[in-house]
Amino acid sequence: MKWRWLYFAISLLVIIPGAISLVLFGMKPAIDFTGGSLLEVQFTQIGQETNLGLSSLKENLSQIYELDAIVQSGENQIILRGKHLDNEQKNLILKVLSNDYGTVEEKRFETVGPSLGKELLTKTLTGVIIAAGLITIYVWVQFNELKYGVSAILAMLHDSLVLLGVFSLLGYFYGIEVDMLYVTALLTTLSFSVHDTIVVYDRIRELRGKYSKYSLVSLINIAVTETLSRSINNSVTIVIMLAALAMLGGETIRWFAIALLIGAVTGTYSSTFTAAPFLLLWEDAETFIKKKKRVNFV
Predict the structure, then answer these.
(1) Hey, which bits of the chain come out as E strands?
(2) Range of the domain at 17
(3) Same domain for 252 and 166?
């Protein structure tokens, strides 16, 4: 823990650009939160003409439907996103596509009303707050000290800010949207972060029982040394799987896999280099307060 201020500096170096982006630009919500329609279609006739036609497709459909985005979701597959689309408009779009590109197959059609989108956003924020609160209480009860629960939740906040900031930047520069899959990845990141943090904290508790005369910083150094290789080995297997999924899984789940990948990396980092140093900060704060009380008493 000699270099704990360097660890905090690295975290700030990652978090600050994302936090600025969140304040200035926010996130780019998908139709899950804003409401709207999504239509995914596949062209059964394979050829270069399909890809070449995408640049003018939005203009061709503008007379019947206002599109927000067109995404190539796979080989000869596209996703159309826009405002609320009824069945009559959807059938008309399929007819226009069939006339321009040949036979078209509807793969997916989703419509979310604006009121439902706001409800999902409210429930998402509520779920994150409830999960964070329950995890804090659980860690506090298990380790019988408030500082463990608070330090764990601060490490979770660190991971959340990293993930939120990265996707805010991706949304601003590359138009990446956040949907319910992203929320799933965010909640999974919280649980993954706490999982590794509890492993480190549990080892600190075991060492404190064996070596009660050791200082907290010495116990943390030993605990981190003993658990770091396990955390890294566990994370590497997850990272390899998620990297393969991000590269080969297709457009529909690519950013979900990337969000999980970012969460796995930052969760592994925070459990060792954020959660453990926060315990030392708490200990230093307690020592400072005690010394100040003694000085005032004298």
Answers:
(1) 36-43, 67-74, 77-82, 104-112
(2) 4-29+116-292
(3) yes
